[in-house]
Amino acid sequence: YGFWSLIRMLPLPDASDIGVTSSAEFKTDYRAIRCAADLRALEQYLSQAEVCAIDTETSGKDPRCATLYGVSMAVKEGQAFYVPMMQLDLDGLSPEDVRARLNVAFSRKLKLVGHNLKYDFAVLQRNGIDVQELRFDTMLAAHECFGDWEFWNLSALAKKLLGALVKRYRDVVGDGETFLDRPFKELVEHACCDADMAQRLHAVFTKE
């Protein structure tokens, strides 16, 4: 009946991996990190990376009051991970556990890239996640490289520079809804896709 927020109260399925192929036929590996074993594997993965694209999923546009649903991360093209910060989306973990482990991962001076990083920085800081090195903002880079373009949102840049059709928030979440009203799979796909596209755009703008 569409009460997707209630589904989060049911037991988690055995498999949480979500493989998605975008409309531009990019091969992708998008995964939700919901249990302790997944979180340890992600920590190990991040420990070997120098640059990581991040994106936050929240309840609104104002970082001063928006609720943080989760954080997505990508260290290479086509692969991304979504870490929930909502208790009902976690299995045997608490949001405090996740927050502590993310702080450990980010304490290595991991170089973070993303789209409109000022928003993500404000949200993470307000939720007790210490982000120490913001490396590269693809929105600012787009303005520096192509100052006469009309649109700077991630979807428009991904379409123009990568040939990828990326759904915007409003394409997924209807009026009066949040991601809690949508299936968890859609939240994971959207969050991971945003981080993945930011990682791909980072490579493009670095060369530019």
Topology:
Layout (H helix, E strand, L loop, with lengths): L3 H4 L9 E2 L10 E4 L3 H12 L3 E8 L9 E9 L2 E6 L10 H12 L4 E4 L2 H10 L7 E4 H8 L8 H9 L6 H4 L11 H24 L1
Helix pairs in contact: 2-3, 5-8, 6-8
How is this structure best described in words?
By secondary structure, the chain is of the alpha/beta class. Helices cover 40% and strands 18% of the residues. The protein has eight helices and seven strands; from the N terminus they run αββαβββαβαβαααα. The chain has a seven-stranded mixed β-sheet with strand order 1-2-5-4-3-6-7, sandwiched between helices. Helix 2 runs parallel beside helix 3. The termini are far apart. 33% of the residues are buried. About 3% of the residues have low confidence.
Strand content: 15-25%
Cα end-to-end separation: 48 Å
Q: Which descriptor suits the 3D outline?
A: globular
Which regions have little confidence, pLDDT < 50, spanning 5+ residues?
Answer: 18-24
What is the averaged pLDDT score?
Answer: 88
Structural class: alpha/beta
Identify the strand order in the major beta sheet.
1-2-5-4-3-6-7
Strand segment count: 7
Helix and strand element order: HEEHEEEHEHEHHHH
Helix content: 25-40%
Q: What is the number of helical segments per DSSP (H or I, 4+ residues)?
A: 8
Our Rg estimate from Cα atoms comes to 16 Å
Sheet with most strands: 7 strands, mixed
